[in-house]
Amino acid sequence: MFVDQIVRFNLISQYLPEAPATLFEVGCGGGEMMRWLEQKGYIVSGCEADSSLVSHAQIWAAPNQVILADGTKLPCEDNFFDCTTSCDVLEHVLPELRENFLDEIFRITKPGGKVVLTVWLNKTFSFKLYGALYLLATGQLPQWYIEHIQIPEPLIEPIKEYFEKRCEQVEIIPYQGTINLAAMLAQNVAAAKGKFRLVKLINYIDFIVKKYDFLGRKTSYLFAGIKVR
Predict the structure, then answer these.
(1) What CDD domains would the database entry show (predicted)?
(2) Structural domain that includes position 60
């Protein structure tokens, strides 16, 4: 896992119910957070719209634990999971489908269950610098970054209003800043160039994670609440 994943997952875990709760991740990518939470005792499953990422996650996951599905139409029962989460996915959903995406997340969560998601909301200077340096180092941009440029970012107020209408004990936490993006840039460039020892080394530099967690909190927000309707 990259530094930004470690910090994000630790932040999300603070708002989850206690294990062994049932947890569904919408847009689980290669299943990194699912696997991390399963090791902590959660009963996890998830979906991903990219078939190549589903195949990657299914290397370790049990059959049907990770399914190919779009977050705007989830093949799950109503009011089923103790917690539903989504990690930096909403900003990749087209604006006209975002409310539908949130409706589905809440539909599959039990009343009294928790909804926790992180959203990248701000194209800060450090975000733009990240793109410029990555392009200089590799000659291309990562697909997730291209989507950030092409798709208008979500606005905090509509998401806040949605959570306040559907939840109690709503928490909105800004996070992720320059130090995290710098560590993330170094790891992504190293991975693109096949320098995987450097990727691992950055994860072992504990002070980077701690310092980031203290000084970050700029580009993204965590939204969490307990479903009441």
Answers:
(1) AdoMet_MTases
(2) 3-227
Query: Is the CB of residue 173 less than 8 Å from the CB of residue 221?
Result: yes
pLDDT number for residue 205: 55
Residue (of 22, 1, 35, 8) closest to 117 by Cα position: 8
In this structure, what CATH number is given to the domain that contains residue 76?
3.40.50.150
Helices 178-192 and 196-204 sit at what angle, rounded to 10 degrees?
A: 150
Residue of 218, 221, 213, 212 whose CA lies nearest to 171: 221
Number of domains in the chain: 1
- Of 225, 106, 113, 228, the C-alpha closest to 171 is 225
Q: Over the stretch 8-19, which tens digit does the pLDDT of each residue have? A: 888 899 999 999
d(CA 198, CA 137): 15
* Euclidean distance between CA atoms 107 and 120, whole angstroms: 23
Q: What is the pLDDT of residue 208?
A: 53
Q: What are phi and psi of 182, to 5 degrees?
A: -65, -45
Q: Which two tokens stand for residue 116?
A: 């926790």
CB 12 within 8 A of CB 116: yes
